[in-house]
Amino acid sequence: MKETKIIAKAANFTAVDFGKMSEIKDYTLQFGDIKKQGKVFGGQTVNATGSEFSFQIFAPGTEVGFLHTHKDHEELYFFLSGNGEFQVDGEVFDIQEGSVVRVAPAGKRSVRNNGSEPLLMLCVQYRGETFTADDAADADILNEKVEW
Question: How far apart are CA 89 and CA 138, in angstroms?
């Protein structure tokens, strides 16, 4: 089974290598009776405190296989390669490399690869209804020279 590798870690960061995106298929995730080949969560691995994320690859002709919702978490789905279909609340639409889908917690969602190439997805999960206008100005640009 494929495993992540910590590149560097200190008090204010964690850097992790998940391997080549073509190797995501080598990860196996098990939750309860469900075993998903080609999926890996990364939030705990990088010590994230406000979100979760996962990479998942779907071989041609495969799908999530179930609908799901969340209690509080909104999700952003980034499609990095391939094409397929996404379903939210019974509405089905095409997705492809470069597509991004936001789903509110209550949205009943699923995805499938109906294409001929692998469909690679990055999903970011976070608590919905928390980002404010103040958050958009959260960064402080430092008056320090960047030295490599």
Answer: 34
